[in-house]
Amino acid sequence: MEQVVKHIVLAKFKEEVTEAEIQKLISDYADLRNHIKQIKSFEWGKDVSIENLNQGFTHIFETTFETLEDRSAYVTDPAHVKFGSELLPALEKVVGIDYVPTREP
Fold first, then answer.
1. pTM of the predicted protein model
2. Which of 10, 15, 53, 91 is disulfide-compatible with 57, CB 3.0–4.6 A?
3. CA pair distance 97, 62, nearest whole angstrom
4. pLDDT, tens digit (0-9, with 9 covering 90-100), for 5-38
5. What b/e readout covers 65-81, taking b as 16+ CB neighbours within 10 angstroms?
6. What are the E-state strand segments in 1-105?
7. Do the beta carbons of residue 5 and residue 65 sit within 8 Å?
């Protein structure tokens, strides 16, 4: 069974951040795949839950890596650090979680 590491980011953008600015940040986030070789895949989406448990988070970003070492290299990569310095000021709140999925037989 293939093992991977998932890096999940839940984000809520500040009210004053325009939709165009959000789309530019998302595009820049996705573009990290072209600069950081450790990224295996990247996906994102907006909250569509009907349970009303999102605590205001509106966007979800998922980056997948092959190993914990690859995830660690990503976190310290200059392209990621630069992007983070652009993304974080646009966010009202953010949660980041890394995990190794467990698949039950």
1. 0.92
2. 10
3. 10
4. 999 999 999 999 999 999 999 999 999 999 999 9
5. beeeebbebbeebeebe
6. 5-13, 41-46, 59-65, 91-99
7. yes
